[in-house]
Amino acid sequence: MNRRDRKIGSFLIYAFSVCWILGFPIWADPVVATEKSAETTAAKAGPDLDPDPDQRCGELLSSQAWFADNQRFYDELPARDFMRRAHDCGLLHSPDLKVPMVQYYLRNILGKAGRTRPTRVVMEIGSGYGRILHELLNQFPGIEKVHAVELSGNNAATLRQVFGKHPRVTIRNENILNTTIQNSTVDVALWMWAGFLEIPPEQKPRALRQVFFKLRRGGVLIMDLPVSTVVVRTPVMKGSADFRDLQMVQRPGAPTLHLHFVTKETLIEWAEIAGFKYRGSIGYTADPPANTERNLHLFVKN
User: 45-300: CATH homologous superfamily?
Assistant: First the structure.
């Protein structure tokens, strides 16, 4: 070994030693590396997406208080009233799952058991009283497991009464921000109706990262959001509108349900920061009596 080779060898040993001391990965699993890269990118973007609370207008709640209010709202909402609300919103019979784009992706991923991999796993975020869950189990026999993630203890109890003994359903009374579902195990994530609106604005990017980590490579996230026609009142982030303390039930002393609306552009921006690839959006009309316009958005984990 000549002098030049010895110098190169000494430099490589020094470089590897520095990497090891500082904790930088020298050999990394591609999936883990992808997830860590997305997490790092999102963390760097944090200051731009998570404004200083002192600079925001209105009665800003902490995330903890926001979730507590929303949980109490659903804990005090009887299942029959929840179903009536679904009817009034035109979603009782799940027109969101009947949209051709949704059917295409669900049937290609979940259609036939054993087609490409031994299991097909769905995570539904905000399962409510089981509207989507019922349709999934009926329409897609190839599904082998559904994680029903539901923050409200009242709704989780309703789900257990209906689906508790179903062999393919796991009911998780959890917040999506700290769900215990194992990373990289989910094929399809569904976030329907208005569940994403109920996440505090400063926690929305983190929630999308959580969903990203739960999905396998090639897994898809389908999100259903209403098209807001309400005048913007309190802007809190770029491209977004904040509607606080929106009373959703008509009875004295009822809990408050907090909603935060985001534009399509902001949603795509946050999802791509989380690591997703945006694949498209499609509009549909809810059933009568609502007949409201809604949008479905599709994201893929490459």
Answer: Vaccinia Virus protein VP39 (3.40.50.150)
